[in-house]
Design brief:
5 strands; 5-stranded antiparallel beta sheet; alpha+beta
């Protein structure tokens, strides 16, 4: 179905605003999804504070062409939708990869991350990253580990002295 020029311009403006606000965009081919599955996916993104928008390839290329994104755009095949995330987190990639495991009709094509085009394998690796909270907890654990060791080393002579005094008191 043909789209009128006014409708195209409003779509371009809407996608441009979403792309401007987002730090991560993931392109997906949703050809094999049912209407109910697509609605369910939109609800998941809405709950996560992200947007999931169906768009024509030519309009997406026109919008993203003005942002100066580096690299080569991934091959966009099939019916295209874009997930926009306002944060530089792997959450959009995790949602799509999880949904694609249960619904074979969804295929991740690539996306935009850190002002560069990325391919589907990068999106898969991004989805495999732990959450921000887990990463922060790992960093804190790594920072605390040497301090824990230092406390153990410094406490060793005192423990030894207590042990020697205990042995002397038993004699």
């Amino acid at each position: 179905m043909a789209i009128t020029r006014a409708k195209k311009e409003s779509l371009i403006t809407e996608i441009h605003q979403k792309a401007e606000k987002s730090k991560v965009a993931v392109f997906v081919n949703f050809r094999g999804l049912s209407a109910n599955d697509t609605t369910q996916l939109r609800r998941i993104f809405r709950k996560a504070g992200m947007d999931f928008k169906v768009i024509k390839k030519t309009l997406l290329k026109k919008v993203l062409g003005g942002f100066g994104i580096s690299g080569d755009m991934p091959e966009l095949e099939g019916e295209l939708a874009v997930a926009f995330s306002p944060e530089e987190s792997p959450e959009a990639a995790k949602i799509l990869n999880g949904f694609a495991k249960d619904h074979k009709g969804l295929k991740v094509l690539g996306g935009v991350f850190a002002k560069s085009y990325v391919f589907a394998d990068f999106i898969g690796r991004l989805a495999a990253l732990p959450s921000r909270e887990v990463l922060l907890a790992q960093v804190v654990g790594m920072l605390a580990s040497p301090m824990r060791g230092l406390v153990g080393v410094l406490g060793g002579p005192i423990r030894n002295m207590v042990g020697v005094i205990n042995q002397i008191s038993k004699k």
